Amino acid sequence: MAGTPEDKKKHDLSGPAPEEFLQQIVDSKGKAVMEWYNDFIKEPPSVDAFLDDNNVAKNRHANILLYDHSRVLVEDDFADDDYYHASWLDSYTKKNGYILAQAPFDTQTTQDFWRMVYSHRPCIILVLVDTGGDKDKQKKQSNGTVDERFWPKKDDKMKLCDGRLIVSVPEADQDLETRRYTIQVKEKKAKAADIFKTTLINFRKWPTDSKVPDALLELRAHVLVQQARAEKEALKKKEICGPVMVVCPSGVHRAGTFCALDIVLSRLSEKKLVGLRTTVEMVRRHRYGAVIHYDHYQALGNLVVKSAISSGLISPDQLFDAKNAGGGGGGEAEGGGDDEKKEKE
Fold first, then answer.
1. Do 70 and 215 meet the contact criterion of CB atoms below 8 Å apart?
2. Greatest CA separation for the chain
3. pTM of the predicted structure, to 2 decimals
4. Are 200 and 194 in contact (CB under 8 A)?
5. Pairwise CA distance, residues 11 & 268, whole Å
6. What DSSP designation does 241 have?
């Protein structure tokens, strides 16, 4: 993520080198991961906006709170209210580098979602939901809610706020797993220079919270390429490149896990340090319930080790030696989470 050296210094979180990180997991036979996880599953700030009677119907899940201190305000003239279930999160190099947002689920939240997009101008909208693509299929979640596509088809338009806000898709790049759309958002009488354009990436291989997909490293690489293009375009126009908006049904489980991975791997690349535990603690301070599933936390550890090996920071021999020295374990942290502790999405 782009940012000044000042930003990097302010938002960096310390952590061990990859060899030490791996050795800690192996020496404890995977128990270190469970200990770190248990340490940060406690704390709660205020949630007044979430509990406001005017906002209750806008929350997809009654048990997934929204912290006041990090909530994203919808700032525009289209409506009087500023509420959407979304939170700011600092990236590795940039304050408020991400917006973690629940997916809209009805007419009102769809309108508020696109108001938020127009208000804060994200450089990328990453949607971690299988919406059924252009066939408009609907996917039922475990709690009975349905994930509907909340952006128009190619060459279609979506008119919101009594027709004053218009969302359109002039371009679409269809792929089986990852679909990319060019999104335009504009006011009804806007001049060409005032039209906001961004990229929506729909990753369709993460349909439920129960399992983190193996392709997450490849997805991150794809997002980084798109982000670099957006930053180059913003520089050319002498504009500020907006945040990365990450969307999943709750805006918590998949979104929080992806952002935590991105932060850890950015640090690993730049400073050769990990900081998994401190990163997840920071993510959870901004977004209630993030990385609540132990399986997600375990998967993060495994992906960090995999990335460290592929980038040459850990050799396969070191992994083998660490396993032998620790009497087993390795990248796959042992121990399981108690299913009853998992928060349902």
1. no
2. 68
3. 0.79
4. no
5. 14
6. -
- The domains of the chain are located at 45-289
Q: Which fold has domain 45-289?
A: Protein-Tyrosine Phosphatase; Chain A (3.90.190)
One-character DSSP codes across 30-91: THHHHHHHHHHS------HHHH-TTTGGG-S-TTS---TTTBPP--SSS-S----SEEEE--
CA distance 20 to 311: 16
The 8 Å CB, 24+ separation contacts for 234-238 are: 234/123
Percent of the chain whose pLDDT exceeds 70: 79
Helix, strand or coil, per DSSP, at residue 121: coil
Task: Answer whether residue 15 shows pLDDT above 90.
Answer: no
Residues 6+ apart with CB under 8 A from 91: 1, 3, 11, 97, 98, 243, 244, 259, 262, 263, 266
pLDDT in tens, 199-256: 999 999 898 888 899 899 999 999 999 999 999 999 998 889 999 999 999 999 999 9
Residues constituting the chain: 345
CB atoms within 10 A of CB 134: 12
pLDDT digits (tens, 9 = 90+) for 150-202: 999 998 999 999 999 999 999 998 776 789 999 999 998 888 778 999 999 99
Q: Strands, E, within the chain: which ranges?
A: 86-89, 98-102, 124-127, 139-140, 146-147, 157-160, 165-173, 178-187, 196-203, 244-248
In 3D space, the residue among 244, 216, 218, 247 whose CA is nearest the CA of residue 229 turns out to be 244
Q: How open is the CA angle 153-157-158, to the nearest 5 degrees?
A: 100
